[in-house]
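not sure who needs this but someone in the group chat was asking about Putative DCC family thiol-disulfide oxidoreductase YuxK from Modestobacter marinus so here u go. i didnt clean anything up, its just raw.
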Amino acid sequence: MTPATGPALVFDGDCAFCTRCADVARRLLPADVRVVPWQSTDLASAGVSPARAQTEVLWFGRGGDVSGGAPAVAAALRAAGRPWSLLGVLLSVPPVRWVAPIGYRLVAANRHRLPGGTAACRVPPPDAG
């Protein structure tokens, strides 16, 4: 298992759409940023559940901070350097920061329908427990 330390972008390796996005991230991010599937990451060491990792991309910062969803995408873009960092900053400031999670949830809920997506990309339903 890969330790859950930063900087790292952690994605759902069972999802073809997420894997394609991770391939793009590998090209954009600096060499010291790991882009790894959650299935091979020691999430417990960072206090992150597999259920969370199945439903949102995660960013593990250098200082041990963990963010998910739209804030994780923003952090990764900021780490990518210009011109991508400008988009990351934009995603981090109001009012864009307020609506970005809605867009992220819309994409995540429909990732199996997006280019490259497969039935395995469908986000599991929340536990009824």
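also The CA atoms of residues 15 and 121 lie 4 Å apart. if thats useful
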